[in-house]
Amino acid sequence: MALIVKTSLLPNAGKGLFTDKPIKKNKKIIEYKGEIIDWKEYEKRVKDDKDGYLFFINKKRCIDAFATPRYKARFANDAEGIGKVKGLKNNACYEIIGDRCFIVAERDIKAKEEIFVSYSKDYWDCIRYNIKHKLYKKKK
After folding, report:
1. What are the chain's domains?
2. pLDDT single digits (tens) 52-78
3. Angle at 78 between CA 96 and CA 52, to 5 degrees
4. CA angle at residue 10 from 20 to 58, to 5 degrees?
């Protein structure tokens, strides 16, 4: 199986992660890789606006894929996010095994399908808050 990065089917989502071959339910699709940092370091990067691809395992171990676009797992989008498209649903999930994170198929995925994985309700609540906050600041 090869994973391909190309324009997402979700509007304004940028790039997405697609498979060229069918993937069976419960199969590990790809490991989420990046720089291993702790939460304090991540908070510093947020202040510098160098965030957006973090996978939190615990306060001492976070995977930051911001500066590592060669690791394709960071391109998996969430079909339940802001730019929803009728008929597109999440088909995979994150699974932590030890100190590593994998994207795993939650159902059979067809060849040429985009891989979608939930970012969590908390993630989207935070994004919506930030959008509202930034729009509010601009109006002043």
Report:
1. 3-33+71-139 (2.170.270.10)
2. 898 999 999 999 999 999 999 999 999
3. 75
4. 85
**What's this model's pTM, rounded to 2 decimal places?**
0.87
Measured between alpha carbons, how far is 10 from 90 in angstroms, rounded to an integer?
12
What span, in angstroms and rounded, lies between the C-alpha atoms of 140 and 53?
Answer: 30
How many helices, marked H, and strands, marked E, lie in the chain? 2, 8
Name the β-bridge partners of 3. 19
Q: Tens digit of pLDDT for each residue in 77-102? A: 999 988 889 999 999 999 999 999 99
Q: How many CB atoms within 10 Å of residue 96?
A: 14
Question: Which residue stretches of the chain are H helix?
Answer: 39-47, 121-139
Phi/psi at 33 (nearest 5 deg)? -120, 160
CA distance 8 to 76: 9
